[in-house]
Write a structure and sequence with these properties.
- By secondary structure, this protein is α/β, with parallel strands linked by helices.
- 54% of the residues lie in helices and 8% in strands.
- The protein is built from 17 helices and six strands.
- A six-stranded mixed β-sheet has the order 1-3-4-5-2-6, covered by helices on one side.
- The protein is elongated, with a radius of gyration of 27 Å.
- Keywords: ATP-binding, Nucleotide-binding.
- It comes from Anaerostipes hominis (ex Lee et al. 2021).
- One of its GO terms (molecular function) is ATP binding.
- Belongs to the AAA ATPase family.
Length: 349
């Protein structure tokens, strides 16, 4: 520990500059660690964290600008092309070369926010999501001041390499400043955010999400090291993801009746298979609301959710390329009964 460290500690203490005091103490701890005095380094860090684990200068309990959210434990279902990009993000962060700002853009339900949680889990970082309702203020100039305070807090993390700051739906502050329909106040706020990005501690990872990328301020886009496009699902990707979701929920509810071919046929009745966010709700509710005494009932509910009608018209089901056995499942009748009714229908035409 050098004399300047002692002087700085005293100075920050007298000035009641808690952020400066903690940062200086952290630098001292790093110095002891580098010199081989690991126990003293760990002791200082435990005093700073109170519980022997890192605690940011601000937390969800003390800062009005942040909400702490948990990482994601479940496997995230994404197309290979997006998964590859996310692994690239992880690799770039772990190399510690100053690549720390990322923008995830795509339609609602494409998995942007869930992807941030997965990245945090892989990197063993905690996520602090910016609460824009606390940042944006109707008073003239206050939003700019709040943004200044926000980035000051971001730069005051005790262990910045353990944090991901998430600007979820950053559209609230990122619209094009040259757009004549945009309020000048919000344009100034965007300018303030640009300055904050430029002065941000590069050890803190920042991930923003948006579904309004085409309206983004171009200067702000340039501040991000990489933009990951989540609008890259093919229909086959979505079918594969839907199958994996089906397996997950059937396992969770201990339902053994599975017929992937029938499931795919029902899903293909949709003109456009929805993105995972909507897909998840569609499959989950069909299974959850099904009759627990009838292991095939979820197929009927799924058909109803997809087609907005019950599977009762045998001729229509046949025209939709369902086999007699599959129609038997969908209408809840015996195979012989279905075959007989279809045959009678043909004879009556």
């Amino acid at each position: 520990m050098k004399k300047k460290n002692v002087i700085s500690l005293i100075k920050y203490y007298v000035e009641k500059n808690d952020a400066g005091f903690r940062n200086e103490a952290y630098e001292i701890a790093k110095g002891f660690d580098a010199s081989g005095d690991y126990q003293l380094s760990e002791y200082i860090m435990s005093l700073l964290s109170n519980v022997n684990t890192f605690v940011p200068q601000m937390s969800e309990n003390t800062s009005p600008f942040f909400e702490k959210i948990e990482g994601k434990e479940e496997v995230l279902l994404l197309p290979d092309v997006i998964t590859s990009d996310l692994l690239g993000v992880v690799n770039a962060i772990e190399r510690h070369v100053g690549i720390n700002k990322f923008l995830f853009q795509g339609a609602p339900g494409t998995g942007k926010t869930e992807a941030v949680k997965q990245v945090a889990r892989i990197l063993n970082r905690e996520i602090f999501m910016v609460d824009f309702s606390a940042v944006i203020d109707s008073k003239l100039g206050q939003t700019q001041k709040n943004l200044s305070m926000l980035f000051k807090e971001i730069n005051s993390f005790v262990q910045p390499n353990k944090v991901i700051v998430m600007f979820d739906e950053i559209d609230a502050l990122a619209l094009d400043r040259t757009n004549q329909n945009d309020l000048r106040e919000m344009g100034r706020a965007t300018s303030a955010m640009l300055k904050g990005f430029d002065r941000m501690n590069e050890n803190v990872v920042l991930v923003a999400t948006t579904n309004l990328y085409k309206y983004f301020d171009k200067a702000l886009i340039r501040r991000f090291d990489s933009v990951i496009d989540f609008d890259r699902y093919t229909q086959e990707d979505l079918l594969t993801i839907a199958e994996k979701m089906l397996d997950q929920y059937l396992d969770k509810l201990k339902l053994a009746n599975r017929d992937i071919r029938l499931f795919r046929k029902i899903m293909k009745l949709m003109p456009q298979i929805p993105y995972p966010g909507e897909l998840k709700n569609l499959i989950k509710t069909s299974i959850a609301f099904s009759n627990p005494r009838d292991g095939m009932d979820y197929f009927r509910r799924l058909y109803y959710a997809v087609c907005n009608e019950k599977p009762e018209d045998l001729k229509k089901l046949q025209s939709q390329k369902f086999t007699v056995r599959e129609i038997e499942i969908l209408v809840g009748k015996s195979k012989s009964s279905v075959a007989r009714e279809l045959k009678e229908g043909v004879m009556n035409e």
